[in-house]
Each structure stands twice: as C-alpha cells, then as structure tokens.
Design a protein that fits this description.
Elements (H helix, E strand, L loop, with lengths): L1 E12 L2 E11 L3 E5 L6 H8 L7 E6 L2 E2 L4 H5 L2 E4 L11 H8 L8 H10 L13 H13 L5 E5 L7 H16 L3 E6 L2 H7 L2 E6 L2 E7 H5 L5 H18 L1
Parallel strand pairs: 3-8, 3-9, 6-7, 7-8
Antiparallel strand pairs: 1-2, 1-4, 4-5, 9-10
Helix pairs in contact: 4-5
Length: 240
C-alpha cells in the first residue's frame, strides 16, 4: 500500500521550474529525497503539503486527494522543517500546549514518552537547546498526535556526526513502530544507513525513483554514484 502518491507535480517560478514530479512512498518505508542544493527538494515537499500551490498535478495520502481532504490528512501526518524556529523564548511545555490545540488526536502520554526518549526538558526554551535537540523537539510535536507519515525537510543538516547518527537510529526505531518517513537531504551517507528508497531530483526534474540498491548496483556507494551522475550532467551542459 502506498501511503503517499505524487503524480505529475509541476511548479514554475521565475528562473526555476519543477517539472512532472511523480513518485510513491510505500507504507512502512523510509524514502530519501535527494539532489544538490537548489535542485527542487524543498519546493517538492512544500507542493505535496500544499504549502505552495502546484501549477498542476495530484497528491494523495491514504488514497485521499489532498485538495479535497487537506484537514483530515494533516491530522494523520507530521511535518518538520529542521530546527524549530519560532517561540524561541517560550518554555517547551507552553509550546506543546499551543501545538496540541491543532490536533484532534493529540496523545499526552505519547508526548511524554517521546520527551523522555529524546531527553528533552519541558522547562527549557528552544533558545537553550542544541541544533540536534531542536530537531528532536520538532519531531515530538510531529509524533505526539500519532502521525502515520513524517515529512522532514533536511532534518540532519547542520548536526554533528554523533547527533546525526542518533537521529537516524530514531528513524529506524520509528519505522519499526510502523511510521513511514520521507525526508530530504543532500547527505547521502545518511540514507545508506536507514533508507529503503530514494527519489533523485536534478534541476527540477526527476532523475530516478526506486530502491537504493537498484540505483547504486553492486559495490558502489550512493554518494559516488550521485557525484558521477552530477559530473556527467555538468559536462553535458558545458559542452552544449
């Protein structure tokens, strides 16, 4: 079963165009959305969350059309865009009390569970947290209403190697709990540690979607294959 299906999403801006993006995210998997900075990863995520309005295309979650069922769908998914960047001086417990008003199925016991799991102090403010702990706070808010799908924009960007590794272990733990995850990243080594599938975007166009193993083949790393593909694309532009 596909928990998320994206069909022919396109969005045009001055100087950039996202073209005909289509991929599926299967239930119980981790998918990485990869590409260079500026390739269109964040635009894709915003379009599939209806944070920007695509010029064309269809997005469905749980076999429900996003445009017709946006509120119901967003009660069942969680989004985190990296570090929390609002209410920096408010205590975490106050931020959580505000956040839970937006969700019909907020689970206070689940929230306490993840706060303990991530070693977060509810009496601290976001300004007192490290980058890694801010990401974990964002995850608490995304998970405490029982999100079946997490959509994360560059969640490991800017984290030190130990914090990144801890976060990837959390992703693997969540997958075992039945949570599906889609996250964008340009750190391909992270995906080799936790992801099942990738969708690869270059210059607003989809290059590949499918399993990492099929894309990489035998004996190569995802990073090396991506670098080689980007090098070939650069030389094609250079020689045109």
């Amino acid at each position: 079963m596909n928990i998320l299906s994206i069909n022919d999403i396109s969005k045009k801006y001055p100087g950039f165009k996202l073209e005909n993006i289509s991929f599926d995210v299967a239930k119980g998997t981790i998918m990485g959305l990869i590409g260079r900075n500026g390739a269109g990863k964040s635009t894709t995520l915003k379009a599939i969350l209806n944070m920007v309005h695509a010029d064309r295309g269809r997005v469905s979650y749980f076999d429900l059309d996003l445009k017709e069922n946006e509120r119901a769908i967003k009660q069942r998914i969680g989004f985190a865009g990296g570090e929390i960047d609002f209410y920096k001086k408010k205590k975490i417990k106050d931020i959580l009390n505000i956040t839970k008003r937006f969700y019909d199925d907020w689970d206070e016991e689940l929230c306490i569970k993840y706060m303990k799991m991530f070693s977060l102090d509810e009496n601290k403010t976001p300004s007192e947290l490290s980058s890694g702990m801010k990401v974990k706070l964002n995850l608490v808010m995304a998970l405490s209403h029982g999100a079946e799908l997490l959509i994360l924009d560059e969640p490991t960007s800017g984290l030190d190697p130990v914090s990144r590794d801890e976060l990837l272990e959390i992703f693997k733990h969540l997958k075992k709990q039945g949570v599906t995850i889609l996250f964008s990243t340009h750190i391909t080594s992270d995906l080799e540690k936790c992801a099942d599938d990738i969708t690869y975007i270059r210059d607003g166009k989809m290059i590949y979607t499918g399993s990492i193993s099929d894309f990489v083949g035998t004996g190569a790393s995802l990073e090396n294959v991506m670098i080689e593909q980007e090098r070939e694309a650069f030389y094609e532009k250079f020689t045109d």
